[in-house]
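Suppose a colleague, Dr. K., hands you the sequence of a protein chain of 293 amino acids and asks what its three-dimensional shape might be. Before reaching for any lab equipment, you can write down a predicted structure in token form. Begin with the sequence itself:
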Amino acid sequence: MLWRDITLEQIQEITKGEKLSTELLRKNIDKVLGLRLEYNYLNQNQYEILLDFFLHSFIFSFRNKFTPEKISCFFSIIKELQLDTKNHDINLYNSFIHFKQLLLKFSVHRPPFSIEIFNVDDVRKISEYVYNTFYRHYKLYQYTFCLKHVATVESKLYQPYIETPFEMLSLGGAMTLEEWKELEKQRKEEEMKRLAEEQEKLNTTSVDALERSTSSASNATFENAEVINSTTAGTFSTLLNSNDRVKSPHSHIKKQLEPIKKEIEEMTNSRLNSLNSRLEQLEIQTKKPTSKK
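The predicted structure, expressed as tokens, is then:
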């Protein structure tokens, strides 16, 4: 960072003149370093604050009789710290760690990682100056130099979509607690009656299904018997005598109907059990006495 931000010729041009006033030094810094082009994103007020910040850094360097090498390194450190204030994510603690790393880089002779430009006394003076001037007002510098993002939010009100409040019902038409209990009792009785009718209908349906399955099995047996009677007597006698090879048509159909019959019985029993449990719950609710408030 030595001679990176300011060269020896620029330092000599800034400090030339017999009577160097503060205003003249300020103008020389602005003219020689060309800060306006580098910081063109700043407005006039921000730029004036930046010039004051650099001006006091040069005054501190002259009062402590820094050599041009020390002035160049110190100016680079100050410039790096000013760039930290542009970022909201870099707080005071992180910036101070950055400052210590930069100062250590120019205080210890360990090439190529660091070079000894400042002695121990210089490090103490620079630390006190930066702490009392820059970090004491770090939040102000951060507020000044942080980039501002302005968001424009426009809200529109659409009349057709305005939700209107619903109409409140009159309390005069409300029912009493006794009327409500009576209605609840009637509703439970109707529910029990409906469940009983549904159970009776299910029983009737299951019986009809069993009768239909039995009749269809009988019809199928009779049809097969008629087919057998229509054949010749010799063939019929052969079929009757060979029981070990050909099974009776009636027993074959019964075996096919057994799974259907079993499935219908299981469905019927399951439905009956659910209806019985529902009836028991309703009977318990109707028998339970109502609590008095």
